[in-house]
Design brief:
The protein contains seven helices and five strands; from the N terminus they run αββααβββαααα. The chain is an alpha/beta fold and about 180 residues long.
């Protein structure tokens, strides 16, 4: 997915739910602060989003723009309607969202905004999910210089993790840093 694709998803979601601000919490959030992020970080064709003011409308997004929808079939990418609880990011992540103005689409009125997870928060949320692809995303983001391992390690303590989970996350991040980062 490219930045223009993410903006298209936001515009289409605005038309579906009648909202103007959407939080982007999945891997495509990297496109907010880094519109030209390396291809390795842009493999997903799914944008995890929810309307800021009315997160309960995320189901409408899933139905109209989700996996297997006509939108997905036509454009090759789609929206996954999620909720704020989906983001397992460090505390305070809401205050660090990166605002990206999005030009209104036909049928939309007014300014639209994508509010993207800040890259360190994004990487840590993905690491907390613990899937291999999420760890690869972390490695790729560090290798590309989009996040720093020192800041990642500092924010682990701000996450809602038990002691074992936090120790595991820290050890994994130290391992990535030990690879030369």
């Amino acid at each position: 997915m490219r930045r223009a694709d993410l903006e298209h998803v936001i515009g289409a979601a605005a038309n579906v739910v009648g909202e103007s601000e959407f939080v982007v919490i999945g891997s495509q959030a990297i496109l907010g602060p880094h519109p030209d992020a390396p291809a390795a970080l842009l493999r997903s064709m799914e944008a995890d989003i929810y309307p800021l003011v009315s997160p309960e409308k995320a189901d409408l997004i899933d139905g109209a723009l989700g996996d297997g929808s006509a939108f997905h079939r036509q454009f090759g990418y789609y929206a996954h309607g999620v909720g704020p609880e989906t983001a397992k990011a460090p505390s305070g992540w809401e205050d660090r969202l990166v605002r990206v103005p999005v030009a209104p689409r036909p049928g939309s009125s007014g300014e639209l905004n994508a509010l993207c997870l800040e890259p360190h928060d994004l990487v840590l949320a993905k690491c907390a999910a613990g899937r291999e692809r999420d760890w690869q995303f972390a490695r790729d983001a560090i290798d590309a210089g989009l996040v720093g391992s020192v800041e990642l390690l500092a924010r682990v303590g701000e996450m809602d993790l038990d002691e074992r989970q936090a120790a595991h996350l820290q050890a994994m991040l130290e391992g990535i840093r030990g690879d030369g980062n």
